[in-house]
Amino acid sequence: MDNAEALEIERTRLRLTCRHLTGVGPQNPADEFAAIAAWLRDNGPHGEGDGFEPGIQPDSYGCGSLVEDFEAEVAALFAMPAARFMPSGCMAQPIALRIWSDRVGNRVTAFHPTSHLELHEQHGYRELHGLTAHLLGDATRPTGVADIAALIGPGGAAQATGIASVLIELPAREIGGQLPTWDELVALSTFCRARGIRLHLDGARVWQAAPAYRRSLAEIAALFDSVYVSFYKDVGALPGAMLLGPQDFVDEAAIWQRRQGGTLYTAMGNIVSARLRLPPCLERMPQLVERARQVAALFAMQPGAAIVPDPPQTSMFHLWLPGEAEPWLAARDRVARATGIWLFGALKPLDGERAVRAELSMGPASLALDDGELAAAIALLFDPT
Amino acid sequence: MDNAEALEIERTRLRLTCRHLTGVGPQNPADEFAAIAAWLRDNGPHGEGDGFEPGIQPDSYGCGSLVEDFEAEVAALFAMPAARFMPSGCMAQPIALRIWSDRVGNRVTAFHPTSHLELHEQHGYRELHGLTAHLLGDATRPTGVADIAALIGPGGAAQATGIASVLIELPAREIGGQLPTWDELVALSTFCRARGIRLHLDGARVWQAAPAYRRSLAEIAALFDSVYVSFYKDVGALPGAMLLGPQDFVDEAAIWQRRQGGTLYTAMGNIVSARLRLPPCLERMPQLVERARQVAALFAMQPGAAIVPDPPQTSMFHLWLPGEAEPWLAARDRVARATGIWLFGALKPLDGERAVRAELSMGPASLALDDGELAAAIALLFDPT
After folding, report:
1. CB spacing of A259 vs B45 below 8 angstroms
2. What is the Cβ-side half-sphere exposure of residue A351, based on CA atoms within 13 angstroms?
3. At which of B231, B266, B301 does a domain end?
4. What is the per-residue pLDDT across A13-25, written as a single tens digit (0 to 9) for each?
5. Quick one: closest CA in A to B258, which residue?
6. Of A121, A93, A349, which is closest to residue A226 (Cα–Cα)?
7. Window A:268-307, CB contacts with B under 8 Å
8. What are the φ and ψ backbone dihedral angles of B349, each rounded to 5 degrees?
9. Cα-trace Rg, chain B
10. What is the pTM (predicted TM-score) of this model?
11. Would you call A90 an interface residue with chain B, using a CB distance cutoff of 8 Å?
12. In Å, how far is A88's CA from the nearest CA of chain B?
């Protein structure tokens, strides 16, 4: 075993055995499958002869009460007419934009320069669906109504300038979970509706936006024509997503889901996992938004550290650290060994700066650390000795 | 509860509590997840301090030893250079044909009229990938070299006539699991290779083809440029598929998989399920091919019953029954109540005939019934009194 390999194993050990500042903390993946097994046993067929109850059967190619009841539940949460469970957001979102494009015979959409569709999906929206995208405004701040207006020109109607839809991510993950102000968001929605531009919500982490805005998920969704949500990010379930919108939109989305290979014989494990984990996620989210501000304040006191945005708007933020990644990773390991607290995972270099960033997203683990021990761990991270 | 609902519950009870003639028999889905949990617990991280072993970590976006070791194992089984785990065949196969098309700048492919791509995928190959397909030959028999030759014309090169690839399903599910003869298959491969036509194997049930041909999976795959296999059909695992071929082909397929939304944060449950269930499937398959012939012979003795193909070539066959579906379903229920044996599930009307068909695919459950009790159950099915 060489040094690099030994370091990797040591880091895995620390990551899996320390208490975490972020997320759900280290999990044994076996536990999730044991929980799914227990739920299926409790809710499946039972009884014999005339006392037989069929219980909940596995979903079959997207049908059956196991998935349909959950779709109805999430649709109700967002006050949207219909919803469809899908394997991933990478599948759901280009489908949404494609449908809105097809409705007006116009393949042009628009989104933030750091949108997941632009950065992390191998441009499926373009290569599979033939869509083209305008990147809206400054990459370091949320999209505003002015960014869309600039694209269209004064007084222009959407159709005339060729834009079928706009996708807005709330909160915007790549810029530390920033949100536009509520008034700005309402103005953006009003602007788009007046011009027939369909507005789609990239709600991968929208669970955070509701307490941040002090608005319900339904109030947020009311500003949009369609919504995507994820169940593995803040929720902490196995992979899964949902696409919400009008019934005819969702029916069409189900056809594209089949075409993309996402209508599976069964997705019962993923569905049960999401059903089990969504309610506690919704319950803890207000606390997590508060926790992000508390944790950020502890880091902000350290020389050289920067918080983006400062203060955090949601339950996540970015911590910027000066210099290269490796010394900070070594410092993180030192803190973990000394305190049993794991502060962050990967660090990403920042374009054009001699600095790196960590994404700190609060979860159940963040609530279990008290401020005293956390402050001591953070002080040690910045202690050069 | 109305009569239709009561009948539905009664049928569910019979289906879930009887011994089955086909497939794996009734399963409590909780058991599969409990098995996955146990495997993850046994193979995950263990030990403490210096004795810590990281064990197998969950896959992450298609990477990590959990999935890569399994890909290497299946690639070796087929003697193909590389393999990629994917959520479904609906995702894998259009991707394969798209890649072969892109290599020659020609979007035309060809397959059997009953191909899954034509009947059950909402034409994703066309709507997403812009491919067009020739349907090859007579829908009631396997594709032969003459069907491809007819398309191309005498002496024509593929490029001249515009065909980039051919997809062959072995065995062909919609026609009762028929196979071309081995010599015919070799001729077909030779014909395509001589003309630069890429040959793709739809191997959803290819596990059956090896014992049927008395050839190894590697000998079959050697006739093709790329191969798709499924892990939930004969194998009986959770949904999952693999696409096999040259390394550069598989690398390109991984990009398309991402574009289609099939590269998940983790697919560990599906991967573990497939890893657990593939070896016993390979072991029992020769017996199942033999069992199909035995079972078919018992049905063939009954007046009005027809076996397609007769005798079966693989571990599946179709049973054709005269008249409408409902009287046969009622007879099936009567047999289930009287004997505790569930003979078949859905019946499908046959185009242009006053008849219906059942798909009988042998599995572990089929091996557990003895011929005497099965013969009695079948006699009862055909007994009008």
Report:
1. no
2. 5
3. B266
4. 999 999 999 999 9
5. A121
6. A93
7. 268-269
8. -65, 145
9. 22
10. 0.97
11. yes
12. 6
